[in-house]
User: Which sequence fits this backbone?
């Protein structure tokens, strides 16, 4: 990859090339990042606040990368994230909620923000908050990676 053409979108496209479709024991499919791409796993780990990575996190990272892969800069990527849609089935939403105790934080924020008595609506709103948070962290982690590559290239020259 040409150093002068590093963008949030170009790094996103590079990362998307290394995702593979896998199957859970219950038959559900999910997206996972190949094991041998350390720099990409570091970006995902940073985006996830250095918490343990799960299949659910990688699947959500894949979705987020699909939203930002055409972004030319950090502002454009963050703008694209504003339109991210949460999961739309109860099984996916409860699976996301069950994937990490940290996700309860988003459900609590959703409850604080909305007095709806519709559980599906509250879960979807919580998931959308999570996606926006994770997405913003991902964009900043990619931008930090780009800055590091550019600084390294400047030192080499």
Assistant:
């Amino acid at each position: 990859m040409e150093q002068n053409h590093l963008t949030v979108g170009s790094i996103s496209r590079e990362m998307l090339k290394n995702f593979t479709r896998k199957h859970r024991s219950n038959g559900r499919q999910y997206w996972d990042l190949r094991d041998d791409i350390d720099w990409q796993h570091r970006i995902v780990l940073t985006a996830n606040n250095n918490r343990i990575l799960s299949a659910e996190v990688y699947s959500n990272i894949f979705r987020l990368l699909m939203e930002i892969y055409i972004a030319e800069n950090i502002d454009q990527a963050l703008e694209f994230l504003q339109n991210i849609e949460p999961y739309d089935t109860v099984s996916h939403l409860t699976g996301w909620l069950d994937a990490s105790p940290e996700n309860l934080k988003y459900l609590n924020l959703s409850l604080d923000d909305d007095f709806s008595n519709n559980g599906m609506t509250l879960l979807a709103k919580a998931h959308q908050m999570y996606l926006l948070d994770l997405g913003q962290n991902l964009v900043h982690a990619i931008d930090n990676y780009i800055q590091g590559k550019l600084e390294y290239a400047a030192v080499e020259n």
